[in-house]
């Protein structure tokens, strides 16, 4: 199957399997049962976390700022709404829980997002956050693919550098993440790191995972087809045939909306 880089289809084809495995670990960390519970998937993208929620027998509701992402395979997806995570278009206490899987690191004010998550969640409902661990498992595919792309003219976009240098550190640090949750009025139940096996174990799969990401996909899509193939082939060759299976470190915060007076 050809990959249309820069499109929701590219993400769904190559990145979604990775994020679905990661999302499964995050969903499993819920401090309360999700059986039959409606759960808002913040920053849903093409639906990896929504599928993990549905596998846990919850009723997913998707929110994303991108209508194109939500439109991908919309006929088989849960209800969705286009919206900003910092101003969730839901009534107070109208949803059974909220999960933010790898979306909290993409906002300027993560505290505001957590406060909104608390507002829309029923008392006793879970608010679960997943981010990439600041320390832990890394994979050489990231550096290899970015090096091959840079050799063909790719430069890391300013927003990507801002994400890595400024936004991610606000939520990947354990103490900072717990403090953000508590300041938003959430009761932290658990904060753990997990090493997740994504199941990706071929050079082609690893290259597809990296090239379909938002930092690289627009550049790759701008290349003529032959140059796209050359880039993917060179990156796969640089990784070699005996590749390291893709495992990624995830930091998971599990919290609940307090119940009772003063909550």
Write up what this structure looks like.
This protein has a single domain, classed as Vaccinia Virus protein VP39 (Rossmann fold, 3-Layer(aba) Sandwich), CATH 3.40.50. By secondary structure, it is an alpha/beta fold. It has ten helices and seven strands. The N and C termini lie far apart (51 Å). The N terminus is likely disordered. A seven-stranded mixed beta sheet has the order 3-2-1-4-5-7-6, with helices on both faces. The protein is globular.
How would you summarize the topology of this molecule?
Elements: H1 8-28, E1 38-42, H2 48-55, E2 59-64, H3 67-71, E3 80-82, E4 97-101, H4 110-120, E5 126-132, H5 141-150, H6 158-172, H7 174-183, E6 187-197, H8 203-211, H9 217-222, H10 225-239, E7 247-256
Parallel strand pairs: 1-2, 1-4, 2-3, 4-5
Antiparallel strand pairs: 5-7, 6-7
